[in-house]
Every structure is written in structure tokens, then in C-alpha cells.
């Protein structure tokens, strides 16, 4: 059968998904809003090969095993059921983003897998269907089907929990200046971290209610290109999410001393009149929501305090792209 290659970009949530109402189907407790990024992405090629005894999944040149392998096989099984085939597949994936470091590799990974695997199996899914399929691999991947700003409406079941585009071609100045504190794999992956919060945080329901109430305000802010409001809401939502991790038993935190140095720096720059806001996913790396005109000033302030830190300026990126691949 024909091989297909898909490219999907990561997305960073401005309003976070942090907890599942249904762990098997990956139905979230809150709706979430994100920005897809041009600079970080995954390329994945899938080919279903008759007589292949087992699925073979290679990520960055290494054969996957254990739960990482199972998550990919789970999505391949969903595709096989839809296409009514039993053929096993070869999957070759390359991350142009640090894997498992809180920079949303699972978002680009499972969006690319949904695109390549469905095409390789002969399916022609709509973008809503691709979003549902990607969601079953990793919740945040539901949003990476789309470019620019997207919302994942939480829904209540397998067929109504998927993402929609809000504004796919972002032609106004917004960027995420990404500060790489640590690009190594985290100790507590997102799935385990959020489940621990859902199961043990006594304040979890309050977080859910508050986060869902932030959604209409964020949509209005995006519609109005209201940079400050987007930044304020995103920073508050991120800190509130990270606060939940401290409320869990056992308490944990993805943020390190260096993360806090950067968060405080962002607050100080704001006091000096710059429009800058911080957001962090499940990892220590801080993304500074900012405008291109302020990049130089931010970098000077950052290098003064943290001379060795690596940065990438990430701009709004496109949705899922699929190209016909070569045989694997
Ligand atoms: P992140 O912050 O990078 O999204 P997660 O804990 O959510 O961290 O997800 C990391 C996991 O996603 C990896 O351990 C692996 O299971 C999976 N993953 C990441 N990239 C790929 C890929 N290209 N192909 C398949 N699985 C991937
Ligand atoms: C903090 O989508 O990686 O980045 O659905 O279990 O694979 P699983 O988790 P994942 O969680 C993302 C958490 C987050 C916030 C977000 O992207 O919305
Ligand atoms: Co993830």
C-alpha cells in the first residue's frame, strides 16, 4: 500500500488541558485554546505492509518500546478498524522538537500520525475526524490539526470532543519566545501528572470551573487581537495549572529554579512597560508571549541573568500537511 508522510506542528496551550473526564477516550474536563507554532514540528511516514508480523515504530532512529510504542499502536488500531484492514504498519517519525520536555512533542506527534496513518490506510477523513483521531493518541494533538489559534471544545463523547480553528492565518504580531531550560525528558509525563491531579487535588473542581469560565474571555481577546488580554489570561491560567500540581498528593512541580527566574523576569519587564507574559506546559521550559518588536530587549534582559540559556522565537504555524511518501 502507498506510504504517506505528514507534517504537524506543535501547539502551546494559552488555556490548558489538564485532566481527563474519560481516560480511555481522552475527553478533557476543560476546553482549551492554543497557538500552533511554526518552529517545532514532527514528520511521520506510515506504510501498511502486507505480511509484516507486527507494527514497527521508529522515532528519531530508535525502535519504540513499552508505553510509547503502545500509544502509537493504539492509534494504528483505531485506523485499522475504521478502514476495515488488519495489515501491520511501519512508522518512521522525526521530531523537530525536544521529545517529552514540555514542548508539546505529543501534540505534533499524534497529529502527524493521525494524518499519515489514515491516508496510508486509504481513508479520507475530514479535519474534525482527524482531530478526534489525534485526540485518542494525545489530547493536545487534537488542536495541532489546525494552524494558528485553535480551540478544543471539551465535548462529552468520542464524536463531539474535537478541535476547531479560530484564526488559522495570524497576520498580527504575536510570538512565543521559547526559553529552553532543559530539553531532557521529564520525570512525570503529562498523562501521569494530570491524572494524579484529577485523583488527589482537593481544589480540582474549582480549577475546572474557573478554567472553563476563562474560555469565552480568551475567544473574545483573540477575535479583538487584544494582545494584553490574551497574555494576562494565558499567564494566569498557566500559573493556576501549575498550582494544582502542588495541591496533588504527592505534590510535584515541573517548574525549576530557572523557570522561576524567567517568570519573575517577565513580571519585572512588564513593570518596566513591556507587554510580555509567561506560559509553561508540563515541563520547566518557559514560553514568553511577546511581540517581535520587543525580542531584542527581552533577549538582553534574559542573557544578563542566564547567559547560557537557549532561545527560539516561535511564530504562528500551519495546520496538518500530508504528502505522498516513498516506500519505507
Ligand atoms: P510533551 O511535553 O513532549 O508533549 P508528553 O509526556 O505529553 O510530553 O508526551 C511525550 C510522549 O509522547 C513520549 O514519551 C512518546 O510516548 C510520545 N511521542 C513524542 N513524540 C513522538 C513521535 N514522534 N512519535 C510517537 N510518539 C511520540
Ligand atoms: C500541559 O496532551 O500531552 O501541555 O492527552 O495524556 O497525551 P495526554 O496529555 P497531553 O497534555 C498536555 C498538557 C499541557 C497543556 C495543553 O497542551 O493543553
Ligand atoms: Co504532551
Automatic annotation (TrEMBL):
SUPFAM superfamilies in the record: GHMP Kinase, C-terminal domain (SSF55060), Ribosomal protein S5 domain 2-like (SSF54211)
InterPro entries: GHMP_kinase_C_sf, Mev_decarb, Mev_diP_decarb, MVD-like_N, Mvd1_C, Ribosomal_Su5_D2-typ_SF, Ribsml_uS5_D2-typ_fold_subgr
Keyword ATP-binding: yes
Domain Diphosphomevalonate decarboxylase-like N-terminal as annotated: residue spans: 8-163
GO BP: isopentenyl diphosphate biosynthetic process, mevalonate pathway
Molecular-function annotations in GO: ATP binding; diphosphomevalonate decarboxylase activity
GO CC terms, sorted: cytosol
TM stretches of this protein: none
A Pfam family reported for this protein in Swiss-Prot or TrEMBL: MVD-like_N
EC number(s) per entry: 4.1.1.33
UniProt keyword list: ATP-binding, Lipid biosynthesis, Lipid metabolism, Lyase, Nucleotide-binding
Annotated ranges, domain Mvd1 C-terminal: 177-310
NCBIfam families according to UniProt: mevDPdecarb (TIGR01240)
Family recorded in the similarity comment: Belongs to the diphosphomevalonate decarboxylase family.
Protein name listed in UniProt: diphosphomevalonate decarboxylase
UniProt organism field: Weissella muntiaci
Amino acid at each position: 500500500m502507498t506510504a504517506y508522510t505528514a507534517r504537524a506542528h506543535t501547539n502551546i496551550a494559552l488555556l490548558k488541558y489538564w485532566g481527563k473526564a474519560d481516560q480511555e477516550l481522552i475527553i478533557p474536563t476543560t476546553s482549551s485554546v492554543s497557538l500552533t507554532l511554526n518552529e517545532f514540528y514532527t514528520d511521520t511516514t506510515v506504510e501498511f505492509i502486507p505480511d509484516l508480523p507486527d507494527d514497527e515504530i521508529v522515532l528519531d532512529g530508535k525502535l519504540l518500546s513499552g508505553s510509547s510504542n503502545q500509544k502509537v499502536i493504539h492509534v494504528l488500531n483505531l485506523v485499522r478498524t475504521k478502514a476495515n484492514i488488519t495489515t501491520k504498519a511501519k512508522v518512521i517519525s522525526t521530531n523537530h522538537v525536544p521529545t517529552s520536555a514540555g514542548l508539546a512533542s505529543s501534540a505534533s506527534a499524534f497529529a502527524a500520525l493521525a494524518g499519515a496513518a489514515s491516508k496510508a490506510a486509504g481513508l479520507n477523513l475530514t479535519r474534525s475526524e482527524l482531530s478526534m483521531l489525534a485526540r485518542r493518541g494525545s489530547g493536545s494533538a487534537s488542536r495541532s490539526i489546525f494552524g494558528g489559534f485553535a480551540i478544543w471544545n471539551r465535548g462529552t463523547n468520542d464524536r463531539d470532543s474535537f478541535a476547531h480553528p479560530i484564526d488559522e492565518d495570524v497576520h498580527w504580531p504575536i510570538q512565543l519566545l521559547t526559553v529552553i531550560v532543559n530539553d531532557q525528558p521529564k520525570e512525570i509525563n503529562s498523562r501521569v501528572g494530570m491524572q494524579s491531579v484529577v485523583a488527589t487535588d482537593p481544589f480540582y473542581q474549582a480549577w475546572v470551573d474557573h478554567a472553563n469560565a476563562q474560555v469565552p474571555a480568551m475567544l473574545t481577546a483573540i477575535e479583538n487581537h487584544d494582545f494584553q488580554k490574551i497574555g494576562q489570561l494565558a499567564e494566569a491560567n498557566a500559573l493556576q495549572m501549575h498550582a494544582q500540581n502542588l495541591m496533588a498528593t504527592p505534590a510535584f512541580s515541573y517548574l525549576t529554579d530557572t523557570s522561576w527566574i524567567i517568570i519573575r523576569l517577565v513580571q519585572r519587564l512588564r513593570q518596566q512597560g513591556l507587554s510580555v507574559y509567561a506560559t509553561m506546559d508540563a515541563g520547566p521550559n518557559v514560553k514568553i508571549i511577546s511581540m517581535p518588536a520587543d525580542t531584542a530587549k527581552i533577549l538582553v534582559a534574559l542573557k544578563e541573568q542566564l547567559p547560557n540559556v537557549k532561545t527560539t522565537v516561535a511564530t504562528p504555524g500551519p495546520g496538518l500537511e500530508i504528502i505522498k511518501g516513498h516506500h519505507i
